[in-house]
Prior knowledge:
Layout: H1 4-16, H2 30-33, E1 42-43, E2 58-63, E3 67-71, E4 74-75, E5 80-86, E6 89-93, E7 96-100, E8 104-114, E9 119-129, E10 136-137, E11 145-147, E12 151-157, E13 164-167, E14 170-171, E15 173-178, E16 181-185, E17 192-199, E18 205-214, E19 223-236, E20 242-245, H3 246-249, E21 257-264, E22 272-276, E23 289-293, E24 302-305, H4 308-317, E25 319-337, E26 343-353, E27 359-362, H5 363-366, E28 374-381, E29 390-394, E30 407-411, E31 420-423, H6 426-435, E32 437-452
Parallel strand pairs: 2-9, 11-18
Antiparallel strand pairs: 1-4, 3-7, 5-6, 5-8, 8-9, 10-12, 12-16, 13-14, 13-17, 15-16, 17-18, 19-25, 20-25, 21-24, 21-25, 22-23, 22-25, 26-32, 27-32, 28-31, 28-32, 29-30, 29-32
Amino acid sequence: MITKYFKHAIAAFVVGCGFAVTTACSSDEDPFFTATENDAPRILNTDIPEGTNGEPGVIKTITRTENFTFEVMVTPVHYTTVTWFIDDEQVAEGDSIDVPVIAGDHIVKIVATTTKGLSTSRTCKLIVQPAEGDPTLATDGKSRWLTIGTTKTIECANATSVKKVFIGKQEAANVSFADGKLTFDVPNMPEGQYTVVIVDATGFRYGCGLFTVSSEAYVDPGIKETVLWEGSSEINWGDSNVTISAEALADVAVGATIQLYYELVDGAEYNAMRITTPWWGDNAEDQVVAQFDLTADTPNPFEFTYTEANKAIVDERGGMLIVGFGYKLTKVAVIEGVAPAETTLWEGGVEINWGDSNVNISADDLAAVPVGATINLYYEMADMPDGYHALRITTPWWGDNAEDQVVAQFDLTAETPNPFQFTYTEANKAIVDERGGMLIVGYGYKLTRVSFE
């Protein structure tokens, strides 16, 4: 029911926005309810959040066992229909919604349309967290990268059966589930981010979060890729080869991995690859990688380690020549390991002593930490008369309940790694977002830095 105070506010809003009003402004009731069908529609709610930086605001955070419920107020009320869309699919019509939604992040669009065809809309995000015991898929970056046209295997917990997999609205083929591992073929579909849904033997659907679909293979954040050559060249011995100059190879470190991406040519008499130099011949000393047959079982990309011997012959003979027969070369790249970027969340020197001194990292500071990141806690052991040292990672709501824990309490010993590391999971993020941050407590140590990578 609309209160008298709120109706006064609506009346002021309607008049201030230039709405056509058919009754006197002295009325408490009329301005909101008697706007005409010729007026532009408005959604009057103040509890629908505004987005920032192009990202919609979060309208609600619920668990999978709760229905998404919400009510809107619109004007002109007698001439406006409200339609609700979740992820571009119409799910309800009317001033209120009360529907179940699978786990995941969803885009909600509320559209108000008048009988004259005038419309307005509001867009926001709905976060639905999995219920306790729901099936979950691994959350690390590599697991959540789906390369089009490949077969994907991913760890799946809490499931007894999986009969179907949907990536967005696209159904995956060749689905199998055994020993906690889910396998399926990634279909040919547009690149982007999609919610993955698994369907069990009973037909029940579980949302498993966002995955990235790409035509490219996954590259670990700790790996640097440098493209040496890219194109499309049908390799045919002397008729067409690809040369990578000594200058292009000058910065390639010994020990790096060189990858060759290729496509087999249909109907070729045979398929063979050889990596040599511009001085090439059949002598063993001319070879970077000796000739071998390309088959359906040859890894693609084919890769080899760039050795001291490779570098010596490349420097002496002016580069690397890729020859052979019956395949098309599309890319040559060098892959090198690099230290992942580390971002400091907190730095100082606090002697952790339960309630007397703790370190709190706010939910706002943790907003930049992606699910799957590694969080590092650097510490120094304190000299304690009782020899007791313990660490617990919880939230500002902290207590002894399991649901309050980000990392359950454990004893710090000389064998505990320093920094202590843990993976920031979807469950961690959910409790941190709900309860306002991450609280690092315990006893008998000094915390010096918290970072993520």
